[in-house]
């Protein structure tokens, strides 16, 4: 079967002071197919990074399961975990913070190989490093330089080379382009796309807005306050967003073609993002939702498949919950 990663009812809670619980990831489920790019989108603090870190095993989950190739990631023995570490790698938002400033590019890239005991032959490892530098659009002259000698985009390329050094199958990219100049963002996205094709990689691509992620992702899940609220193919999500939050996110993206008049109505969300330590009852989005109904405060909307492969958690799409709500208000 073609599922590579399965996330089932994943919860990651953090115990804060005074017995307060921060529910960073609350009952999130999705599956990623081999060779696919799956995007997770949401505002900062929605739990998307925590989800990524829990999936790769940097955090223990509070509840739920993460299955990689059918194996429970959090129940692996040492040997299984060791080989799993080779298969799944992470690229971080701030390439500068994630690269040791005192190490040369060569040392940075070879470190994971050392840990895993790969390419022990010196010459072989050297060739491997040169090849990786080439793969990410750098060259062998860069090998003995230090991170501060590079631009933001180049540093992200170094981070990508390091992630590739173990020949992974799956890469979690946590906002890999957010810290970069707009002019450089497309280059890094194109690099990631090219590498995916060449090496058959599967991506989980985490982003805070939809503008770039819709170009790279096959499917996208939208998160809000620890919850997954909508999931479908990128095209569908872009053309027919169902959840009021997704509709608002999309209305904030400018239409790229200057010859097309942007007649869409911008949906401005009222109010602040609530604290994940004190989320609203019922639907977590209800304090900012332009369509909120009485039922939204009382009941948590269920995750349902509205159309083929299009999932949403919103009472508007449950006829038994909407009562006499005016459906014509719902833009779609
Ligand atoms: Fe808005 Fe209610 Fe749907 Fe939540 S369940 S998004 S509050 S309409
Ligand atoms: Mg983050």
Automatic annotation (TrEMBL):
List the SUPFAM superfamilies. Answer: P-loop containing nucleoside triphosphate hydrolases (SSF52540)
Limits of the ABC transporter domain: 5-250
The keyword Transport is annotated on this UniProt entry: yes
Q: Which domain of life is it from?
A: Bacteria
SMART domains for this protein: AAA
Keywords from UniProt, A to Z, are: ATP-binding, Nucleotide-binding, Transport
Supply the InterPro entries for this chain: AAA+_ATPase, ABC_transp_ATP-bind, ABC_transporter-like_ATP-bd, ABC_transporter-like_CS, Oligopep_ABC_C, P-loop_NTPase
Which CDD domains is this protein grouped with?
A: ABC_NikE_OppD_transporters
Coiled-coil stretches are: none
Query: Mind listing the GO molecular function terms for this protein?
Result: ATP binding
The family assignment reads: Belongs to the ABC transporter superfamily.
Q: How is this protein named in the record?
A: Dipeptide ABC transporter ATP-binding protein
């Amino acid at each position: 079967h073609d599922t590579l990663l399965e996330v089932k009812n994943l919860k990651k809670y953090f115990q804060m002071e005074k017995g307060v619980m921060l529910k960073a990831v609350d009952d999130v489920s999705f599956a990623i197919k081999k060779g696919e790019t799956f995007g997770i989108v949401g505002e900062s603090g929605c739990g998307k990074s925590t989800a990524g870190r829990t999936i790769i095993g940097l955090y223990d989950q509070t509840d739920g399961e993460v299955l990689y190739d059918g194996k429970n990631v959090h129940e692996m023995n040492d040997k299984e975990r060791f080989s799993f570490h080779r298969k799944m790698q992470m690229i971080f938002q701030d390439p500068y913070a994630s690269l040791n400033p005192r190490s040369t590019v060569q040392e940075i890239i070879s470190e994971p190989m050392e840990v895993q005991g790969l390419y022990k032959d010196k010459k072989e490892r050297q060739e491997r490093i040169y090849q990786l530098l080439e793969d990410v659009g750098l060259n062998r002259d860069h090998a003995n330089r230090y991170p501060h000698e590079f631009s933001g985009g180049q540093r992200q390329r170094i981070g990508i080379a390091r992630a590739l050094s173990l020949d992974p199958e799956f890469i979690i990219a946590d906002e890999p382009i957010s810290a970069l100049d707009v002019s450089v963002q497309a280059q890094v996205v194109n690099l990631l796309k090219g590498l995916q094709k060449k090496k058959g990689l599967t991506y989980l691509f985490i982003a805070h807005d939809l503008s770039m992620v819709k170009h790279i992702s096959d499917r996208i899940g939208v998160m809000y306050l620890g919850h997954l609220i909508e999931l479908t193919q990128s095209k569908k999500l872009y053309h027919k967003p169902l959840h009021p939050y997704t509709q608002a996110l999309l209305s904030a993206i400018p239409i790229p073609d200057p010859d097309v008049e942007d007649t869409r109505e911008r949906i401005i969300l009222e109010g602040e993002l609530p604290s994940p330590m004190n989320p609203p009852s019922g639907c977590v989005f209800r304090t900012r939702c332009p369509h909120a109904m009485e039922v939204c405060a009382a009941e948590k909307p269920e995750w349902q498949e509205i159309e083929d492969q299009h999932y949403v958690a919103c009472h508007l799409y449950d006829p038994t919950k909407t009562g006499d709500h005016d459906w014509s208000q719902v833009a779609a």
